Each structure stands twice: as C-alpha cells, then as structure tokens.
Amino acid sequence: VLEDRQTLTNSYKSLLNRWHGEGTGNNEVAMVRISSQLNVSNRHIEDGSYLRFKNISLGYDLPKSFCNRLNISSAKITASLIDWFTITNYSGFDPEVSTFGGGHLRQGLDFSSYPNSKSVLFGLNINF
User: Fold this and answer.
1) How many Å apart are CA 111 and CA 27, to the nearest integer?
2) pLDDT tens profile 10-29
3) How far apart are CA 47 and CA 82, in angstroms?
C-alpha cells in the first residue's frame, strides 16, 4: 500500500497519473481523504519473491613472512557485507519488511516501512 491516497505520507510518482476529473481516463484512482480505514484491494497485490545475499564474507590470511616481521604467529583480515544485494521485481524498498513485524505469519502489508539496513563489517584477527 505504497500509493497513499489519503495524503498522509509521501507517495509514489505513479499517483501523478491519478484520476482527477472527467476526461482523465487512466488506471490510477483519485486522491481522497477518508477515514483511517485501510482500503486494500487486489490492485495492491504484487510478487514479493526475492533472492538476497544475506551475508558475503571474505577473508585473507596475511603471509607468514609478514607475520614473522611483526613478531606474531598469524593474522587474518576479514570483510563482510550484510543485506547488501537483493534481486527482486518488488516495487517497494524491501520485499522482506513487514509493517506489523512479528514474524513471517504477519508479513504482507508494506506501508513504506524502512528497509533492512545494509552493513559493512571489517575485522582483524591476530594470534601471538
């Protein structure tokens, strides 16, 4: 329900083509301010399938000769990308978000919820 027609939040650009008077024949319904009830129809249903690379980690063991010069037995440098890549045709920010939270059984409505955050983690593991 990312096309808010009650003027309560920002809306998608597609609402610029909404019906706004006689002679405007298009597929978007009018902007109306009604009660706070949610008017959901099958027009709002879309495929929310996606492929997400949840955690991509890379590690590099520093050469033994380099570690010997630093007087350490071993060292490893790591980097991780978390929630960085998602492949989907979903029109919202993130197909995994749920406005109501509470697990997978309550997902299904997206009121422009914030997407999952992307993270980059760096690490250094040194053994003496």
Assistant:
1) 21
2) 566 666 666 666 776 566 55
3) 24
Beta strands in 36-104 (DSSP E): 50-61, 74-88
Yes or no: say if 20 and 28 are a contact pair by the CB < 8 Å rule: no
Q: Tens of pLDDT along 19-68?
A: 666 776 566 555 555 544 455 566 667 788 889 999 999 999 999 999 99
Residues in the chain: 128
Q: How many helices (H) and strands (E) does the chain have?
A: 1, 3
pTM of the model: 0.57
Task: Residue 96: name the closest of 106, 105, 107 by CA.
Answer: 107
The closest of 115, 107, 114, 122 to 85, measured between CA atoms, is: 115
74 strand-pairing partners: 127
